[in-house]
Amino acid sequence: MSMFCFQCEEASKGFGCTTKGVCGKHSKTAHLQDLLVYLLKGLAVVAEDAARQGRPDPGVGLFITQALFMTITNANFDDARLKDRIQAIIARREALKASIGYAGDLDAVNWIGTPDQYETKALVVGVLSQADEDVRSLHELLVYGLKGMAAYTDHAAVLGFEQPEIYDFMVAALAASLTESDIQTLIGWVLRCGEFGVTAMALLDEANTTAYGNPEITKVNLGVRDNPGILISGHDLKDMEELLKQTEGTGIDVYTHSEMLPAHYYPAFKKYAHFVGNYGNAWWEQDTEFASFNGPILMTTNCITPVKDAYRDRIFTTGQAGWPGAMHIADRPEGGAKDFSPLIERARSCAPPTELEQGEILGGFAHAQVMTLADTVIEAVKSGAIKRFVVMGGCDGRHKSRSYYTDVAKALPKEAVILTAGCAKYRYNKLDLGDINGIPRLLDAGQCNDSYSLAIIALKLKEAFGLDDINELPISYDIAWYEQKAIIVLLALLHLGVKHIRLGPTLPAFLSPNVAKVLIENFDIKPIGDIEEDVRAMMAAA
Ligand code: SF4
Ligand code: SF3
């Protein structure tokens, strides 16, 4: 075994990647990420102590958030940047220790090594260094939830929205994932992670809607025009804003890819005439779709797949994303904007995108928009025109078995409405599912973090129907997961009291049998099964 990683749904053989990641991550990169997380836990222990002494390190929450974000599946494959971050963690930890006179003896708070020692050290501090499989499972579940939370917290911070309580929790929980081994206490940390997941998603919702307005019902064009284009992928809306501003009047069009599709739903972006549409599908099809796009591509976050020669000289990363050899657009200076001129220059010599498809898709059903339709929706439920809502949000992925979600969307009776968010939607968002009394049968709230919108809608419906329990609503959950943002969304739903969630295409490899049993017994989480049986059970309110 030259590495071990089981943080995503595509963990090899449902066990873990042991020689090279299915995602393309080399063992060296996996080791650097292991060491980075380990040392970050050490920094969290020191930061917690500093706060306890009343001498907190003010920037440490955001620093930890951004470093964790780098280790999310498909975010950063660039060893040089991971090494730089490890050095920065050690430097920050040592400075903090010196300033508070810290004298603890944990290895993670004291280890100092040079870059040539990182790999050897990583071999003894990775996931498998915890021998007890239940403790390991809970540590990793907690850390993966924190990674997802880190992504959302960083996006909010970029827009100027930060909450000290979220950072305090992240620091304390990360420290606990190093020092705590009592099973019940760890379960408590995992459940609290869900609670703060809701807080983090609410903060990001506030940040996005304050900066760019409330998403509106929008038809998004799938075709292309004759101008050269820039394709923007990932989740960062501030990058979206700055790219649109800097490309205005240049004769270059801008298209969204994968999780950037919901940018079209925001009023602030609609005013740009060169913001043309969405190109392609979910992240895992990028190797062919980026080739035919013909112009530069900007990856603002996950998901990057191994870069092909066909577009190697056209791919750029920014923020916490990275690919070795890809040009990285530097962070914005204090009070300034990022400089996207290298993409604009590159686009000038590129052919227009090759058309993949034509037509439109509909989206923009975040909570504020759905609430304007509340009376119609409630009436449709009362009259029986809508019998069930099925939440099918989450992530998409490569596995053939994910056709389950397309088949469920097709098999659901015409009285069912699908609520979605995240890139999972690409499995069914181009189907013609029709409408119920004018309400489309597929309501897309936005990015994966906009699962928060789906939770708000559920809570508002619970109120409107005068119910005591969210599980009494005519809503079923049939969720697709891939990476760690889906983990924080799942923990957030559990915190809100949602039960009977179907999770697929497989249950996480990092759940030990005992930890899986706790989730099943307390929340009735179940794996997806036969399409017809699942549809029947969901419609019968199983
Ligand atoms: Fe394997 Fe997923 Fe880890 Fe990549 S992130 S190495 S695919 S488990
Ligand atoms: Fe997709 Fe990577 Fe998770 Fe934001 S872009 S949902 S997989």
UniProtKB/TrEMBL annotation:
<feature type="binding site">
    <location>
        <position position="5"/>
    </location>
    <ligand>
        <name>[2Fe-2S] cluster</name>
    </ligand>
</feature>
<feature type="binding site">
    <location>
        <position position="483"/>
    </location>
    <ligand>
        <name>hybrid [4Fe-2O-2S] cluster</name>
    </ligand>
</feature>
<feature type="binding site">
    <location>
        <position position="448"/>
    </location>
    <ligand>
        <name>hybrid [4Fe-2O-2S] cluster</name>
    </ligand>
</feature>
<protein>
    <recommendedName>
        <fullName>Hydroxylamine reductase</fullName>
        <ecNumber>1.7.99.1</ecNumber>
    </recommendedName>
</protein>
<feature type="binding site">
    <location>
        <position position="303"/>
    </location>
    <ligand>
        <name>hybrid [4Fe-2O-2S] cluster</name>
    </ligand>
</feature>
<dbReference type="GO" id="GO:0005737">
    <property type="term" value="C:cytoplasm"/>
</dbReference>
<dbReference type="InterPro" id="IPR016100">
    <property type="entry name" value="Prismane_a-bundle"/>
</dbReference>
<comment type="similarity">
    <text>Belongs to the HCP family.</text>
</comment>
<feature type="binding site">
    <location>
        <position position="8"/>
    </location>
    <ligand>
        <name>[2Fe-2S] cluster</name>
    </ligand>
</feature>
<dbReference type="GO" id="GO:0046872">
    <property type="term" value="F:metal ion binding"/>
</dbReference>
<keyword id="KW-0963">Cytoplasm</keyword>
<keyword id="KW-0560">Oxidoreductase</keyword>
<keyword id="KW-0001">2Fe-2S</keyword>
<dbReference type="GO" id="GO:0042542">
    <property type="term" value="P:response to hydrogen peroxide"/>
</dbReference>
<dbReference type="GO" id="GO:0051537">
    <property type="term" value="F:2 iron, 2 sulfur cluster binding"/>
</dbReference>
<dbReference type="InterPro" id="IPR010048">
    <property type="entry name" value="Hydroxylam_reduct"/>
</dbReference>
<feature type="binding site">
    <location>
        <position position="235"/>
    </location>
    <ligand>
        <name>hybrid [4Fe-2O-2S] cluster</name>
    </ligand>
</feature>
<feature type="binding site" description="via persulfide group">
    <location>
        <position position="395"/>
    </location>
    <ligand>
        <name>hybrid [4Fe-2O-2S] cluster</name>
    </ligand>
</feature>
<dbReference type="GO" id="GO:0050418">
    <property type="term" value="F:hydroxylamine reductase activity"/>
</dbReference>
<feature type="binding site">
    <location>
        <position position="23"/>
    </location>
    <ligand>
        <name>[2Fe-2S] cluster</name>
    </ligand>
</feature>
<dbReference type="Pfam" id="PF03063">
    <property type="entry name" value="Prismane"/>
</dbReference>
<keyword id="KW-0411">Iron-sulfur</keyword>
<feature type="modified residue" description="Cysteine persulfide">
    <location>
        <position position="395"/>
    </location>
</feature>
<dbReference type="InterPro" id="IPR016099">
    <property type="entry name" value="Prismane-like_a/b-sand"/>
</dbReference>
<feature type="binding site">
    <location>
        <position position="423"/>
    </location>
    <ligand>
        <name>hybrid [4Fe-2O-2S] cluster</name>
    </ligand>
</feature>
<keyword id="KW-0408">Iron</keyword>
<dbReference type="InterPro" id="IPR004137">
    <property type="entry name" value="HCP/CODH"/>
</dbReference>
<keyword id="KW-0479">Metal-binding</keyword>
<dbReference type="InterPro" id="IPR011254">
    <property type="entry name" value="Prismane-like_sf"/>
</dbReference>
<feature type="binding site">
    <location>
        <position position="485"/>
    </location>
    <ligand>
        <name>hybrid [4Fe-2O-2S] cluster</name>
    </ligand>
</feature>
<feature type="binding site">
    <location>
        <position position="17"/>
    </location>
    <ligand>
        <name>[2Fe-2S] cluster</name>
    </ligand>
</feature>
<dbReference type="GO" id="GO:0004601">
    <property type="term" value="F:peroxidase activity"/>
</dbReference>
<comment type="function">
    <text>Catalyzes the reduction of hydroxylamine to form NH(3) and H(2)O.</text>
</comment>
<feature type="binding site">
    <location>
        <position position="259"/>
    </location>
    <ligand>
        <name>hybrid [4Fe-2O-2S] cluster</name>
    </ligand>
</feature>
